[in-house]
């Protein structure tokens, strides 16, 4: 899929102080990302606090992004969870020409076997013609989707087109890139491994930090895809501190604090997450300042 390549960003869901969805802020963030040069937008991923949103709220978020984007960038929708039957029902009911693909996380908490993971995604694949991007994030799910399982899915189902790989294990990433079918995409799910993944032959990143510093982050990935490692790593090392800082007190508390600093949305998150501390906000403000001054 040529449309899903380069820098994707996992959009936050902005909240007002009363925890209702701030659709105006969401529109501002979409414009900011589009103007910053990112390649596609991911809606209702884990960074979007999707597990805290009800069905009606998810529809509000989807419609707000579709409206604000106005067809400018490809859209990917997060539909995932740990009940296969519920996810199958959601995918079957999903009808929208506005989304290029579905991003679906490996089941969390249940800790299924590799066969269970395979059967989960097989069940999803068989009820939709939409392209599916797998999402492996062992630090959140409690289980690692191993390369053998990913490659089995990639070879068995034409509409399983890629994986967002957030194991943090570059040996696992390179194993996937080496053995994958030709057009199967290996996408970094960690900002810190984004450039190494691209330089190893991956397709890009679905980033958290990239939505707050879109111009530099997307340029870094573009340089990596052009096989210009020296120029790309110069940007990586400028961004590296922020890649760590935004996760110090949980995601998306950190990235929302950055958006508050940039004046794009409040730092409000829903429980069980809590807003970033004043100490972290000050550190983030110092990190962001050189980037915001360049584009002022």
Summary keywords:
12 helices; single chain; globular; 296 residues; alpha/beta
Describe this structure in words.
By secondary structure, this protein is an alpha/beta fold. The protein is 46% helix and 12% strand. It has helices spanning 23-36, 55-69, 84-93, 114-125, 138-141, 147-156, 170-179, 194-199, 214-225, 229-245, 253-262, 278-294, and strands at residues 6-10, 40-43, 75-78, 101-105, 132-136, 160-165, 185-188, 204-207. The chain has an 8-stranded parallel beta barrel with strand order 1-2-3-4-5-6-7-8, surrounded by 5 helices. Helix 2 links the parallel strand 2 (40-43) and strand 3 (75-78). It starts with 5 loop residues before the first strand and ends with a helix.
In short:
By secondary structure, the chain is of the alpha/beta class.
Lateral strand order in the biggest sheet: 1-2-3-4-5-6-7-8
Rg value: 18 Å
Tell me, briefly, the overall form: globular
Question: Oligomeric form of this entry?
Answer: single chain
The arrangement of helices and strands along the chain is EHEHEHEHEHHEHEHEHHHH
The description of the largest β-sheet is:
8 strands, parallel, barrel
On the 0 to 100 scale, the average pLDDT is: 96
């Amino acid at each position: 899929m040529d449309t899903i390549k380069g820098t994707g960003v996992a959009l936050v869901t902005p909240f007002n102080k009363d925890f209702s969805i701030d659709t105006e802020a969401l529109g501002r963030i979409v414009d900011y990302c589009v103007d910053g040069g990112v390649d596609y937008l991911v809606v209702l991923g884990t960074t979007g606090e999707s597990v805290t949103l009800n069905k009606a709220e998810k529809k509000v978020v989807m419609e707000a992004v579709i409206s604000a984007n106005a067809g400018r960038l490809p859209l990917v929708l997060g539909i995932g969870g740990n009940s296969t039957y519920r996810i199958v029902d959601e995918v079957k009911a999903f009808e929208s020409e506005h989304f290029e693909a579905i991003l679906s996380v490996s089941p969390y908490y249940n800790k299924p076997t590799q066969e269970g993971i395979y059967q989960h995604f097989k069940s999803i694949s068989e009820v939709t013609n939409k392209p599916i991007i797998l999402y492996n994030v062992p630090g959140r799910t409690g289980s690692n989707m191993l390369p053998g399982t990913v490659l089995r899915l990639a070879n068995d189902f034409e509409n399983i087109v890629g994986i967002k790989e957030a194991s943090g294990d570059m040996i696992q990433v390179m194993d996937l890139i080496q053995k994958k079918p030709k057009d199967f995409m290996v996408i970094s799910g960690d900002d810190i491994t984004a450039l190494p993944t691209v330089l190893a032959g991956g397709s890009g990143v679905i980033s958290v930090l990239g939505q707050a510093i879109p111009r530099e982050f997307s340029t870094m990935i573009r340089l990596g895809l052009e096989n210009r490692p020296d120029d790309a790593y110069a940007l990586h090392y400028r961004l590296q501190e922020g890649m760590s800082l935004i996760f110090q007190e949980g995601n998306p508390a950190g990235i929302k604090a950055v958006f508050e600093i940039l004046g794009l949305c409040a730092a409000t998150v829903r429980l069980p997450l809590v807003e970033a501390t004043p100490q972290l906000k000050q550190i983030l403000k110092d990190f962001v300042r050189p980037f915001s001054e360049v584009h002022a």
